[in-house]
């Protein structure tokens, strides 16, 4: 759940390049005649995306009444996404924005593909539109599939058009299990609209982010348990509190809505609590001081 700058690539440049090596003259002429409609539909996408109205865009089976959706899918698969294809450079530029290597939809897993925000099987004129192509991990891409929104509330966050990075939406809660575990949830900031609150919660649920973040948190707890135990032995609860608080501040300054920011911020609750100096278990430490 993080925003990205909009691509500076124009849809007409992408389309012209991708069909530049089509040898079938008849097919190429038919494709070239699609360009005006592709530009119009791409502009409509941008306008609707800015207002959470993408569900209003009508589905199509053809482009310009002449190119089928299967033919447009072949343009994307074979002439844009395929290695050594004429449009491959555009594909890689969109897939890996500068300085970004994690999926913006979950914010955690590595980017592996481009996801069509509106499915190319239902919106073939948007198959190669840059603003309809979002970097994604394999899991998020698979979970979403070809599902299209049916209303504004079910429009997942679009990294190019929706920015929630300035406020904390993601929070965590400690669960008294053995070993201790965390669950994650969405809590909207005071300045959020009802629509954005519903969209963020829908995004969180659709992409099954609680499962992902809980799993990542469990691994992190296991990885740092020895370090926390050593800190407690050497400096007591105050040393642990200081370490976790500094880590939380660092995470929050980088990304407010990462699972690590949400979970480590719980450390702020342990301030001022007296600790049994013989407490050694990290799971017991979490249960005693994070709640």
Strand-and-helix sequence, N→C? HHHEEHHEEHEEHHHH
Largest sheet composition: 2 strands, antiparallel
Instruction: Report low-confidence residues grouped into runs of 5 or more.
Output: 268-280
Spatial order of the strands forming the largest sheet: 1-2
Determine the strand fraction and express it as a percent band: 5-15%
Distance between the termini: 26 Å
Number of domains: 2
| Shape by Cα distribution | elongated
Helices, by number, come to: 10
Quantity of strands, as a count: 6
What level of helicity do the residues show? Answer: 40-55%
Organism: Paenibacillus amylolyticus
Protein name: HNH endonuclease
Question: How does this model look, in words?
Answer:
The chain has 291 residues and is mainly alpha-helical. The chain folds into two domains: 11-150, no CATH class; 170-289, no CATH class. 45% of the residues lie in helices and 8% in strands. It has helices spanning 11-18, 25-32, 35-49, 69-81, 88-95, 138-144, 194-206, 209-254, 259-264, 282-289; strands at residues 62-63, 67-68, 113-116, 133-136, 170-175, 181-186. The radius of gyration is 23 Å and the shape is elongated. The two termini are 26 Å apart. It comes from Paenibacillus amylolyticus.
């Amino acid at each position: 759940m993080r925003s990205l700058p909009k691509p500076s690539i124009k849809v007409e440049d992408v389309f012209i390049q991708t069909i530049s090596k089509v040898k079938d003259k008849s097919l190429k002429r038919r494709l070239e005649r699609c360009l005006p409609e592709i530009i119009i539909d791409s502009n409509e996408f941008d306008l609707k995306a800015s207002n959470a109205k993408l569900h209003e865009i009508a589905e199509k089976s053809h482009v310009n009444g002449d190119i089928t959706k299967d033919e447009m899918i072949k343009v994307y698969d074979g002439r844009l996404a395929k290695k050594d294809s004429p449009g491959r450079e555009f594909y890689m530029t969109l897939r890996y924005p500068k300085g970004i290597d994690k999926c913006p939809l979950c914010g955690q897993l590595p980017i592996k593909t481009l996801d069509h925000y509106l499915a190319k099987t239902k919106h073939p004129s948007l198959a190669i539109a840059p603003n309809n192509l979002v970097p994604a991990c394999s899991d998020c891409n698979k979970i979403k599939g070809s599902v299209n929104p049916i209303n504004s509330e079910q429009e997942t966050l679009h990294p190019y058009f929706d920015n929630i990075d300035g406020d904390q939406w993601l929070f965590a809660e400690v669960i008294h299990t053995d070993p201790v575990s965390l669950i994650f949830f969405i809590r909207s900031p005071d300045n959020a609209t009802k629509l954005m609150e519903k969209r963020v919660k829908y995004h969180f649920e659709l992409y099954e982010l609680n499962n992902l973040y809980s799993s990542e948190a469990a691994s992190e707890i296991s990885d740092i348990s020895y370090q926390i135990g050593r800190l407690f032995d050497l400096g007591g609860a105050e040393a642990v509190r200081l370490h976790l608080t500094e880590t939380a501040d660092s995470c929050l300054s980088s990304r407010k809505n990462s699972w690590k920011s949400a979970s480590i911020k719980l450390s702020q609750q342990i301030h001022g609590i007296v600790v049994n100096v013989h407490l050694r278990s990290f799971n017991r430490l979490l249960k005693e001081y994070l709640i």
